């Protein structure tokens, strides 16, 4: 049963929180000529400013190495908008030129002190001429190994902390403090030790409430709806525990390969690229206790408690509860694709994981003895992210085995992407005299139910950062607890032979050993 919206076209969403008006600001984009900025961030900013206009000024300043100047930078951005913005989002000529006028360029190497002084002078000029009010948002769309250099240079140049600015209010002269925020992209460190070191550096320059560690999964409407489903519905929370839930499955499947990212992927693998961040965030939202209120710190407090309740795995537990795999040549959408070791830049003897299956336990009263099964990988049959909650069967079955042969266990499926929605599998009697039961799905698509387009994840997160709302961003202790769990697995893997990296053909759901992992418990994977 699927609910349908009557409107043939989706209505525009709202991005600015009710009652909140964004301050004027300058957004400083480090690595502005790079792939992330050109593909994602700049099109997102163009869409945000054009479709959700506000009376306050936003200027975008590029801080990059290339000798472009304002005009060259503006031309580059407009080309990127033409190339990467969806067809129905493309700007007309007037909107393109209006956006271009907001763009400014500061040429510098990341380790050049004089460059940061030029940046400071440019920002002060924009405060006076464009009215940006001393508010700064620094976005590090840069390789992780440059983060420390940029952060320290911002502090050295006196750009990390806000200044008092004056404004005339109804009661005369008032003092209003401007703000400075910084967004850092994943990966945040490559293990627990490096994450702690990076946290120490950034914490010595910026206060924690200025730091916005971004994970774009947290900007997805369906991830945020996990909290709404659990805590806004009286029928859900009483069932959300070990008494009624048999197990939980989280799948993050990608149909693409590494897409030319061999240099990064060879050092990260699926466990660091997906599990350490995306999966752990989804898991913590799915399993956390109710927060005291909807404030950023209360929600993040509860998420951290979940991660702390996951014990560090011993080498024996890693061998028993994890399966890692690597894709080989296969067929995707009727086309032959190469195996991982044949990808450009990959070591022919690589043991990097492109697939992982994992069983975890959360050691608290709510989730005692409820296994959490995780699967993620590259070159799987389809792109999909889902959370599947399987409930226990009824304590006493009134129907015979023959009558319920077509019935599956009750399952609640939260579809995070790409077909965002929710589905509940229940048992029902087939029409007719016989007592034959079958499973039916009560299904709702967010787009069709509400008739509203879903915000792009980066758009929501950037808007929240401008407003100073850190609810959907990752706090320091979340990062470190997540790395603690991952490190216990990777350190054990380092001592295991290459034969424990199991091959699977591209276009399949992973190696057979992953099936054995869950089948040993009398369960089975539920594929998207």
Automatic annotation (TrEMBL):
Residues 228-525 form the Glucose-6-phosphate dehydrogenase C-terminal domain. Residues 28-225 form the Glucose-6-phosphate dehydrogenase NAD-binding domain. Gene3D superfamilies: Dihydrodipicolinate Reductase, domain 2, NAD(P)-binding Rossmann-like Domain. The keyword Protease does not apply. NADP(+) binds at residues 65, 186. Its EC number is 1.1.1.49. Substrate binds at residues 216, 220, 254, 273, 378. One of its GO terms (cellular component) is cytosol. GO terms for molecular function: glucose-6-phosphate dehydrogenase activity; NADP binding. One of its GO terms (biological process) is glucose metabolic process. It catalyses: D-glucose 6-phosphate + NADP(+) = 6-phospho-D-glucono-1,5-lactone + NADPH + H(+). Keywords: Carbohydrate metabolism, Glucose metabolism, NADP, Oxidoreductase. The active site is at residue 278. It comes from the Bacteria. Pathway: Carbohydrate degradation; pentose phosphate pathway; D-ribulose 5-phosphate from D-glucose 6-phosphate (oxidative stage): step 1/3. HAMAP family: G6PD. Belongs to the glucose-6-phosphate dehydrogenase family. Catalyzes the oxidation of glucose 6-phosphate to 6-phosphogluconolactone. This is Glucose-6-phosphate 1-dehydrogenase. It comes from Dictyobacter aurantiacus. The gene is zwf_1.
